[in-house]
Amino acid sequence: MNDTILTVSDLSKDYIDTAGFIVHLLEGINFEVEPQTVTTILAPSGAGKSSLLKITAGLENPTAGKILIKDKAVFIPSKPSSFPWLNVSENIKFNSNNINEEKVKEIIEFVGLSGYEEHFAHTKSLGFRFRISLARAIIKEPSLLIIDETFGNMKSEIKLDLYGLVREAAVRYKLSVLFATTNISESLIISDIIYIMKKKPGEIVTKIDLKFKGIRDEKFYLTGDFVRSKNIIDSALNEHNLKELLVL
After folding, report:
1. In a domain, 59, yes or no
2. What string of DSSP letters covers 126-144?
3. How far is the C-alpha of 155 from the C-alpha of 211, rounded, in Å?
4. Which stretches within the chain are classed as H helix?
5. How many independent structural domains does the chain possess?
6. Which of 44, 68, 148, 220 could cysteine-pair with 78, CB 3.0–4.6 Å?
7. What range does the domain containing 193 cover?
8. DSSP β-ladder status, 203-209 and 176-181
9. Could you give the dihedral angle defined by the CA atoms of residues 228, 219, 240 and 197, in that order, rounded to the nearest 10 degrees?
């Protein structure tokens, strides 16, 4: 549709396993990402979330289906990457052309890395490296930012900061975000729209629109809006028997 950044239509993915059998990983996937929203694929482990995101980013080919993206997409993998021979500033500017140094400075400040420009990222935490990946993505001025399941091994307070950073980036830099997770609470705190996907084969079974207002911090977990929305997701999961999803 004209007002969508990403439209995925009837997407399927098959592969041949080690025994030579055809495995249907994804089947008939349909969803959209709207402008300046965070859309999350919530699914059990093994449902094909990462493959779906990589296909959307153009890193893998689907077996069938169509993907329409306005402008360009940038992909951040589940383990944010950095180049060990480059410092933070060089990492952020890597593979970008016609860079405006004032813009680089502004983006470094936005992601919280001011003062670390000369540090080498490979010795830093996953959260630190995610900030680098986010800055590198923003500099490329994409319309769509695709983030694989990347926050799982971080401390809660770090994750909350990064959820807020992603949401703020969507508004400030006019980004649409496609995210994947197995964690219900994580999906609620970062998302505007959630698609629940079952596995064997992966198929989207429910769409949930969230209408949250205000800041989503640790207190957000205690609000009525959060509890009601979590109950809606729990109900959808029970309906489709998706008990492998984390309910933290």
Report:
1. yes
2. HHHHHHHHHHHHHHT--SE
3. 27
4. 49-56, 88-93, 101-110, 126-139, 156-172, 184-190, 224-240
5. 1
6. 148
7. 6-77+142-240
8. unpaired
9. 130
Residue 183 in any domain: the answer is yes
What's the CATH code of the domain at 207? Answer: 3.40.50.300
DSSP one-letter string for 35-88: TT-EEEEE--TTSSHHHHHHHHTTSS--SEEEEEESS-EEEE-SS----TTSBH
Q: Which amino acid is at 17?
A: D
**In terms of pLDDT, which residue wins out, 219 or 122?**
219
Rounded Cα distance, 168 and 69, in Å: 22
Whether 1 is covered by a domain: the verdict is no
Residue 182 lies in a domain: yes
The Cα–Cα gap between 34 and 7 comes to: 9
The pLDDT tens digits for 116-168 are: 999 987 778 889 999 999 999 999 999 999 999 888 778 888 999 999 999 99
pLDDT band at 35; cut points 50, 70, 90: very high
**What CA–CA distance (Å, rounded) separates 216 from 236?**
23
Contact between 38 and 190 (Cβ < 8 Å): yes
Other residues' Cβ atoms within 10 Å of the Cβ of residue 199: 17
Whether omega for the bond prior to residue 44 falls within 30 degrees of 0, making it cis, is: no
d(C-alpha 105, C-alpha 36), whole Å = 23
